[in-house]
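Last lecture ended with a question: if I hand you only a sequence, what can you say about the shape of the protein? Today we answer it with a concrete record. The protein is Kynureninase. Below, first the input exactly as provided, then the predicted structure, then a couple of comments.
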Amino acid sequence: MNTSLDASDLAGRAAQLDQTDPLGRFAAEFVPSDEVVAYLDGNSLGRPLRVTGDRFASFLEREWGSRLIRSWDERWMDLPLALGDRIGSLTLGAAPGQTVVADSTTVLLYKLIRAAVDARPGRTEIVVDDDNFPTDRFVLEGVAAERGMTLRWISVDPERGVTVEQVRDAVSASTALVVLSHVAYRSGYLADAQAITEEAHSAGALVLWDLCHSAGVVPTELDEWGVDIAVGCTYKYLNGGPGSPAFAYVRRDLQAGLQQPIWGWMGASDVFAMAPEYRPAAGMRRFISGTPPVVGMLAMQDMLDLIERAGLGDIREKSLLLTDFTLDVVDAWLAPLGVTVATPREPERRGSHVTIRHDGFREVTAELWARGVIPDFRAPDGIRIGLSPLSTTFAELLAGLAAIRHAMNPAAG
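The predicted structure:
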């Protein structure tokens, strides 16, 4: 902990980090806002790219306005699979034919959890941790009630996350499915997905990973790790916009044996046969239900272009530099004011956000928002500093942290 750094030291360091940042040029490609001093919530909603306005205009005039219904045959029908393959290739470590874009995160979780537990007949338990995101826990409660199953809760330290040892102790011959988040939404703890997956498999269970806080910022190797199923959203680090559809990954050899419960015409083997009974399509199309949300899939295409240009490895490297800098500033400026860190300090054990805690942060967050500094608050006492490496500069980060210090202690400057 270094509490000796003053404002000029930190400003100089931020300037140097920005000058030497190989990804710094990308920040100018995002839509600016005169109302925002520092945007520290990229882990909840990514900023839009300037070029996306042109994509929307072209879509309106050409694909929708001129080609009209012909666009379904020309591009839209295959877009969920083509875009899924691109997400898989660029961010998930997934070979083609295993990822699809469809529905919301909640709906995809329901579909794949139901399919997974039904694929393990005779097993009566689902393992989940008690600090997982509410959607995951709520969907699991509903599926467990539907299927007469038991949830086996792993009790975790909310400033850390689920460990391999805890999973080893929780799984058994009764476990049908393990559902965990790769990056904990509250603390930013990065789970050892490969080792945990191996532990679940040793008990004969399937594993579903929630990738909402890692897709596009933390490299994953789903194929190499032997992951069974994964779900993730696209409006955080994939910058798909508010309410953009989620993606699902299902390992190729599992696809034919999983029957998802929402049978819609777009998941049928022959979409236009208007058949009297449902027969699921082969491959990932079977996990689609209704008409694909084409408009919701536009913006993320531009962010995927940017990720491809930048390289996910370099994105991860900058993410760690940003979180390291955050911890140094918190230690110097905020720890003396009673702020504590609720995120692992080991770089290899954290994602791309840092959570800090203080009893007064609910009121502080409201003041920050009014001043154009945008982190997010997580009850009961946490502020998350969400860092999207391609849109966030070190100077912007420092300005946001300075605003937190000022809100807590106006005399500090």
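Comments.
1. The mean pLDDT is 96.
2. The CA atoms of residues 131 and 158 lie 6 Å apart.
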